[in-house]
Design a protein that fits this description.
Layout (H helix, E strand, L loop, with lengths): L5 H10 L41 H5 L9 H4 L8 E2 L1 H7 L1 H8 L13 E2 L6 H4 L2 H4 L4 E2 L5 E2 L5 H7 L6 H11 L20 H5 L1 H4 L23 H4 L9 H4 L34 H24 L3 E3 L7 E3 L23 H14 L4 H21 L24 H4 L9 H7 L3 H8 L13 H4 L14 E2 L5 E2 L4 H7 L8 H8 L21 H6 L27 H4 L9 H4 L33 H24 L3 E3 L7 E3 L23 H14 L4 H20 L14
Antiparallel strand pairs: 1-2, 3-4, 5-6, 7-8, 9-10
Helix pairs in contact: 4-5, 9-15, 14-15, 14-16, 15-16, 18-19, 26-27, 26-28, 27-28
Protein name: C-type polyheme cytochrome OmcC
Keywords: Signal
Organism: Candidatus Thermoflexus japonica
């Protein structure tokens, strides 16, 4: 940085075009033909110059932003004329960025003309009147991300220069099939250090996102450590490793960051059998698999071998000698790869996305993993010998599956309503536990450590003394950890709410005041405590199972389930239940004294099988009642809200055109609603057979019995527990 005369500085400040950042003396913005500015600070001790100490100058000088010899600033020195083109000037020149901000008198938001060579990213580039209030950024996809604060300055450049939409647009314009070579297609490069595109995942849409797949959103990390300048020193650009070590005790150096593996990432993404390696190595493993797939596809389908060089533009080249590596004589622009198909272009673009952010594992590692996995999977469709993904994983366990519908459902609205935020956002549960209220929250990218842990140094969990269920029942399981789980895993409806909705209406009278009530997913707590929680519809005059007494060592949720993976500790089950070695074996558990509840004559199937047969019988009975008693056929879809639809063609299944909210079933009677509610209750807890199998069988049996009072239903051989 070069000193500025006091007269010039006062003129700049008087004009109001620049704001001095942290006492830093800015230089005037030259025209694109200005003489290059020296990069080395010079103190000129003359009566006309006031030399000032520049805060953070030495820190800044150690950064890449100040490296005047770097290719990022010198690439255009030998151009004729030597100037930085419009499409590059914004981020490779202080002059270009000030032009983009409109501080040169031109319109803001666009670079109007080429910029002079010779500048770096200096104080005034980031500290000025325009950046002071900047809080939003428009990404290459056209998506505007607002409410950012200081990191908006970083994201203006560290966003890349392309998006998945650019790839799709090029493919559409080429107008060719997935595996058809087109001379209209060429490699599209996201550019270097697109950290913001990785961090904001599907919000920014920096990667190519395959149709029909959902993707991770913004990587939140933890409160207070989520913005660029929270993790990086804004002047040296180095990662604040000391801050990382507050929670990641094993981190001492920047290299250690690559070995971080959190409890929310316990699946084997790359399928190499190692779930202890850092997320960076998981990404590297998938990168290797994708590169293998890219080369195999180019060789087998396109019949023109391809190689990649991360440091040589345009990165992908023809493998002239077919040895699989990028040799020096092949890495040249006139040998760039020129046989692109849509399928190959999508995969190559995502491969480059993963390569050009070296900190991707920390910025948004799971988003990158999904891009890599989906690219391999897509290429596999055309390969004679597909890349083996049988042991690889795309997504995490439910609590950390940020791409799942349970977290992405509200992206369009931008807010998760209070009725859902407690269990479907990272911040909702802690707020409820601390203040007893739920408010609307921004959509989350899965749970955070702080969702269940009240300390991120000791990792103690929130202590929950008792849980209030939807029925109004207040239950203390005796285990604070189980109570914590049941705060969400309790369902959202109950016998009480069903009775309240029905009121005193006759059992077989259709009413437009009735609607389907959904207990919601994974109401394991309500199943486990049975009649104490009254989560299912319990028919008057009947008695029901209460809390399922398993074994004294397996009373709490985390006794049987891993708290993070959520998987069942099958190895524990096998100690008592002979033959249990896998999760599938759990379905076969049957105690010797178990009767033939479903009446099918099979006394060797597991309790899960008994429940499934009776559940199937209830569904047939529901359809018979709707068809024969009401006159409006009904069908059920387990994955489409609101689940029960009018079967317009009477074929017994929900066809695609029938699975829409406008076709939701509307001719409810109290009798039908009770049975449908219990059918859903038994369906939405897939572990019901283990949580409280007899309770599930009781509500299924009683629902069948009640329907049989209105339509002929065979219950021959069935036994109620």
């Amino acid at each position: 940085m070069r000193g500025t005369t006091w007269t010039t500085l006062k003129a700049l400040l008087a004009a109001g075009s620049l704001l001095v950042g942290a006492g830093c003396a800015p230089r005037a913005t030259p025209t694109p033909t200005a003489t290059p500015v020296e990069a080395t600070p010079v103190a000129v001790a003359t009566p006309e110059v006031r030399v000032r100490e520049v805060p953070f100058e030495q820190e800044w000088l150690s950064s890449a932003h100040a490296d005047a010899k770097a290719e990022a600033f010198r690439h255009w020195d030998r151009e004729s004329p030597p100037q930085i083109p419009v499409q590059c000037a914004k981020c490779h020149s202080a002059y270009g960025f000030l032009d983009f901000l409109g501080l040169d008198g031109s319109p803001a938001g666009v670079v109007d003309q080429p910029a002079a060579i010779g500048s770096v990213i200096d104080c005034v580039t980031c500290h000025n009147s325009a950046t002071r209030g900047m809080d939003r950024v428009t990404m290459p996809s056209g998506v505007e991300i607002a409410g950012l604060g200081p990191e908006a300055r970083c994201m203006q450049c560290h966003q890349g220069r392309a998006s998945g939409q650019d790839v799709e647009k090029a493919i559409q314009e080429a107008g060719v099939e997935a595996d058809q070579v087109s001379e209209k297609l060429s490699f599209i490069n996201i550019h270097y250090y697109a950290a913001a595109a990785i961090k904001y995942g599907t919000v920014a849409k920096g990667g190519y996102q395959y149709a029909g797949r959902s993707y991770e959103a913004r990587f939140d990390h933890v409160k207070g450590v989520s913005a660029c300048v929270d993790c990086h020193d804004s002047h040296t650009l180095k990662v604040k490793v000391d801050l990382c070590s507050t929670c990641h005790k094993e981190v001492r150096t920047e290299e250690d960051l690559r070995r971080i593996r959190m409890e929310g990432s316990l699946v084997d993404y790359d399928g190499d059998g190692n779930i202890r390696e850092g997320l960076a190595d998981e990404i590297a493993g998938l990168q290797e698999l994708l590169y293998q797939a890219i080369q195999a596809y180019a060789r087998e389908v396109v019949r023109k071998p391809i190689v990649y060089d991360a440091h040589a533009y345009p990165y992908f080249f023809v493998d002239l000698n077919e040895n699989g590596t990028a040799d020096p004589d092949e890495v040249r622009p006139d040998n760039k790869y020129n046989a692109w198909t849509p399928r190959l272009l999508r995969a190559a673009y995502n491969y480059q996305v993963s390569q050009k952010d070296p900190g991707a594992f920390a910025h948004g590692g799971k988003y990158v993993i999904q891009l890599l996995y989906d690219s391999i999977e897509d290429l596999n469709q055309a390969l004679a010998t597909p890349i083996d993904l049988s042991r690889a994983h795309r997504d995490d366990a439910g609590h950390f599956a940020g791409a799942s519908e349970s977290f992405r459902h509200w992206d369009r609205e931008g807010r998760v309503p209070p009725a859902c935020s407690r269990c479907h956002t990272a911040e909702g549960l802690p707020l409820y536990l601390q203040d007893g209220v739920s408010i609307s929250q921004a959509p989350s990218n899965g749970f955070l450590c702080s969702t269940c842990h009240d300390s991120l140094t000791e990792f103690t969990r929130y202590e929950v003394k008792q849980v209030t269920f939807p029925s109004g029942a207040v239950i203390d399981s005796g285990d604070p950890n189980t109570n914590l789980c049941m705060t969400c895993h309790q369902g959202r409806e109950s016998k009480v709410s069903v009775d309240r909705l029905i009121g005193k209406q006759p059992p077989d009278q259709v009413s437009d005041k009735l609607r389907f009530l959904n207990v919601h997913y994974f109401a394991a707590g309500a199943t486990r405590f049975g009649t104490q929680a009254k989560g299912a519809y319990e028919y008057d005059g009947k008695t029901y199972e209460g809390f399922f007494q398993h074994h004294s060592q397996f009373r709490g949720c985390t006794d049987c389930h891993d708290a993070h993976e959520l998987e069942v500790h099958v190895e524990f089950c096998g100690k008592c239940h002979e033959g249990v070695r896998t999760r599938a074996d759990l379905l076969n558990i049957r105690l010797p004294e178990t009767p033939d509840y479903d009446g099918d004559g099979n006394t060797s199937e597991g309790l899960a099988g008994e429940i499934e047969t009776m559940r199937e019988a209830l569904y047939k009975a529901i359809q018979a009642y709707a068809r024969d008693r009401i006159g409006t056929p009904i069908a059920y879809h387990p994955h489409a809200y609101p689940y029960f639809f009018t079967d317009t063609n009477g074929n017994g299944v929900v066809d695609p055109e029938e699975a829409n909210p406008q076709n939701s079933y509307k001719t409810w009677t109290p009798r039908l609603l009770r049975a449908a509610y219990n059918y859903q209750f038994a369906t939405k807890d897939p572990g019901g057979y283990a949580h409280n199998g007899k309770y599930i069988l009781q509500i299924l049996y009683d629902s069948l019995e009640d329907l049989s009072r209105a339509v002929p239903i065979s219950m021959k051989g069935m036994i109620r527990p």
